[in-house]
Amino acid sequence: MTQDPAPSRLERLREMHRKDPRDSFAAYGLAMELAKRPETAAEAVEVFARLLEASPEYLPAYYQLGVLLARRGETARAREVLEKGIAIAERTGDRHTRDELQAALEAL
């Protein structure tokens, strides 16, 4: 009798996100995993975008989405995402994240 293979990390993250799409941590984890592969990068962009729409102060997602968009050649959109993240980081007083976002913006 053959056992089914263990679910992949991606499958587990998809399941977590499916069970609670409002869970920002699950959405972020799924998007990060999707961003690792070119064939799932477009889906990662969508998951990051939905995450930021639902949780606009989830600052790490701005950096990751901006970098992913830049890697995909979507420089103008990457710039918009990073600038929005910078504004939110400034408003919330998160200087460390603001500096990281600013460095990513300057690297475009």
Characterize the structure shown.
This protein has 108 residues and is mostly helical. The chain has a single domain (9-106), classed as Tetratricopeptide repeat domain (Serine Threonine Protein Phosphatase 5, Tetratricopeptide repeat). The protein has 6 helices and no strands. Helix 1 runs antiparallel to helix 2.
Record the SSE blueprint.
Layout: H1 9-19, H2 24-35, H3 41-54, H4 59-71, H5 75-92, H6 95-106
Helix pairs in contact: 1-2, 2-3, 3-4, 4-5, 4-6, 5-6
Compact summary:
The chain has helices spanning 9-19, 24-35, 41-54, 59-71, 75-92, 95-106. The chain is mainly alpha-helical and 108 residues long.
Question: Could you list some keywords that capture this structure?
Answer:
Serine Threonine Protein Phosphatase 5, Tetratricopeptide repeat; 6 helices; 108 residues; 0% strand; mainly alpha
The CATH superfamily name is Tetratricopeptide repeat domain
CATH architecture: Alpha Horseshoe
| Low-pLDDT regions | none
Query: Which fold name fills CATH's third level, the topology?
Result: Serine Threonine Protein Phosphatase 5, Tetratricopeptide repeat
Helix content, binned percent? over 70%
**Could you tell me the number of beta strands?**
0
Helix/strand class: mainly alpha
Order of helices and strands: HHHHHH
